[in-house]
Amino acid sequence: MTETPETFRGEDPQIWLNKFRAQAEQLQKQAEAAEERLANNQVSVQNKLMKLSLGSGGAVQSLEFLTDAGRASATELTAAFKDLYTKAGAQVARETMAVMASLADEDDPSVQLIRRQVPLDVQLEMDAEDEATGRNA
Prior knowledge:
Layout: H1 13-39, E1 43-46, E2 50-54, E3 60-65, H2 74-103, H3 109-117, H4 120-133
Antiparallel strand pairs: 1-2, 2-3
Helix pairs in contact: 1-2, 2-3, 2-4
């Protein structure tokens, strides 16, 4: 009589273990790729007064005043900066959520937690972009 190995979840334990290791290795590669994308997540936006580069987590990487900025009032410069920061923040947040959604479903609590951390003005900008581009159609 030939002995058969006990089954684990309906298959040979060694086969199951090999599949599990392959899945774990794939998840590790996905996590490393996601980490790299997040670390390199930077966007640049500009208007007639300035150019702003925003990095991962909303950190300002650079702010360059353009020629027209010299003729603008402090109030205009402040409004222009806030507008650019909101637009750039929306792009950074969208990329961050896309990276997280590549690891978990968009409905996953971890992805939703990130969305809830996005400031309201940035969420509104993202919603406006979605509506303008038909992303939520």
